Amino acid sequence: MPVTWPDEVDAVIAGDLTAAAAYGTPAGGAVVTAVAPIGLRDRERGRVTFTTSLGLGRKLERLRKDPRIALAYHAREHGFAEGNPRYVLVQGTATVVDQPDRAYLDDVVTPAATRFMGAPKRGRFWDRWLSAYYADRVPVEVDVTRIVVWPDLDAAGELEVHGEPLPDSDPESQQAPKKGTGPRVDVARAAKRIARLPHRLLGYRGADGHPVVVPAEVGAASADGLALTSRARLPEGERRAGLLAHRYNRQLVGIASRQHAGWLTVTGDSALYAPHTEGGFTAPANKTLLLLGNGYMARRGLKRARKAEAQATG
């Protein structure tokens, strides 16, 4: 039977401008990235949906190999669920629709996106320039396994579960990587960059393999890593984990993101995160410049995706 959820949870899924998506890595970690789900969901089928770019081939390939995914609805700014305090974590199984469907994009995605982003740019230049951006997007459909709901955005307090019960035990500690568990990037620099961004989320693989995403605060930086705290309970032990810090503005103009993969150690109330990789971007706080950039990146990504597809088919 499809997983169902109550109206107050649906208001969050329908209204949040952004969510944090987490998916697994081959080494047993989790990547956390920001997406714009624009309210796409089907309560009767127990499904939520977001769109992504064909140019992000690595993410799509990982989802095809391990379709377990999580979406954390963690912020209310610039959406339609302001005043609703709940932190909503959706876990499920993703299906990537390989071929863009222009009718679906025109009839479903465009009206939903317009509600959040405003009317799309039109005209001879913009229709041509953004054609790759729209042709490049495919839906990722997530059949919901469970929804975990905390009463506030700090993920504190007593949680409720809709769908499959949570695992009875914590995930086991993972084997240390061959290159060691310590930081591999400049920790002080990473801490300063993260501190500039208001939303921070930690992702790791749960006991049943589904990613878990919870809010986290980054504290002092040391040679051993970043001190972390979270109102949500973190599993004891050591494991690979992803860390996302991001900012977004109205209609996603002027967004910024910092992403890390690294090693999480939790002992009692103490948590330490050693970042191993880092990446990020800052988009211009100007909608025209943003759309020009989106068009360029989509053209480049679509070209790469088509080249990779041609090579794969011989």
Structural key phrases:
Pnp Oxidase, Chain A, alpha+beta, 8-stranded antiparallel β-sheet, 7-stranded antiparallel β-sheet, 314 residues
Report on the structure:
This protein has a single domain, classed as Electron Transport, Fmn-binding Protein, Chain A (Pnp Oxidase, Chain A). Helices cover 25% and strands 36% of the residues. Strands 1, 2, 3, 4, 5, 6, 7 and 8 form an eight-stranded antiparallel sheet that branches. With 314 residues, the protein is α+β, with helices and mostly antiparallel strands. The model has no long low-confidence stretch (mean pLDDT 91). It contains seven helices and 15 strands. The termini are far apart.
Brief write-up:
With 314 residues, the chain is of the alpha+beta class. The chain has a single domain, classed as Pnp Oxidase, Chain A.
Topology readout:
Blueprint: H1 7-15, E1 19-24, E2 30-35, E3 41-42, E4 47-53, H2 57-65, E5 68-73, E6 87-96, H3 102-117, H4 124-129, H5 131-135, E7 137-150, E8 160-163, H6 187-195, E9 199-205, E10 211-215, E11 217-222, E12 225-229, E13 237-247, E14 256-267, E15 270-282, H7 287-312
Query: What is the rounded Rg?
Result: 19 Å
Find the count of extended strands (DSSP E, 2+ residues).
15
Low-confidence stretches: none
Oligomer: single chain
Secondary structure tally, helices: 7
- CATH fold-level name: Pnp Oxidase, Chain A
The fraction of residues in strands falls at 35-45%
CATH superfamily: Electron Transport, Fmn-binding Protein, Chain A
The CATH class is Mainly Beta
